[in-house]
Amino acid sequence: MLDIHVPEPGRGESLAHELSQQWPSYAAYVVSFATIGVIWINHTAMVRRLRAAEHTTLVLNLVLLAWIGLLPFTTALMAAYLREDRGQHLAAAVYGASFLGMAVSFYAMQRHALFARAHLLHAALGPADRRSLDRRNRAGLIPYAVATAAAPVSSYLTLGICALVAGFYALPSTTADPTLGVPPQS
Q1: How far apart are CA 41 and CA 150, in angstroms?
Q2: Of 178, 174, 80, which Cα lies nearest the Cα of 126?
Q3: What does the alpha-carbon distance between residue 57 and residue 62 come to, in Å, rounded to a whole number?
Q4: pLDDT (tens digit, 9 = 90+) per residue, 103-145?
Q5: Does the chain have fewer CB atoms within 10 Å around its N or its C terminus?
């Protein structure tokens, strides 16, 4: 995911200049890393809410992992084409779509656990708590769709929207999750 190279000495430019030329790689990496980190935190919270997982949850988890596995490629693509005159919009669309796919798969898994398999949740998570968690997770789908749709207009806008979504989900939820204090099941 991090496609940053050590500049070769003796190329005539200062090291600071050579490092600054790699800023698209830094930016794409930070956004992707923050997003993966937030997904990991939220995935951990989701799994802790479950007393058990069944086959569909495991398959949906594999779909999520497939999207996460695609992020190193889409991040490198975005970093390579962000400032280019040709290809930047397609690269941004692929990048935004990979975030949208990841968000949709996480939302599907979360929704399945909260509603289709609510009997597998810890009893402390009532219907109002489940609806609140569902709303918070669903909120990220629209910005990722907008980021993907904005790619033909501006690759920078796509990157910025993806960064804002990561920032939103990095903030603690205002809704208390009664299962967060529940020890993990073994």
Answers
A1: 28
A2: 178
A3: 9
A4: 999 999 999 999 998 888 887 788 898 899 899 889 889 999 9
A5: C
- Residue 87 CA neighbour count, 13 Å, CB half: 8
Which range, 77-86, 88-97, 117-126, is most confident?
Answer: 88-97
Task: Give the DSSP H/E element, type plus range, for residue 144.
Answer: helix 141-149
Structure pTM? 0.83
Q: Which residue has the tokens 């919270």?
A: 45
Inter-helix orientation angle 23-49/155-170, to 10°: 40
Number of alpha carbons in the 13 Å side-chain half-sphere of residue 45: 21
**Proportion of the chain in helix, strand, coil states, percent, rounded to 5:** 70, 0, 30
The tokens of 121 are what?
Answer: 């949740």
Contacts of 132 (CB under 8 A, 6+ apart): 175
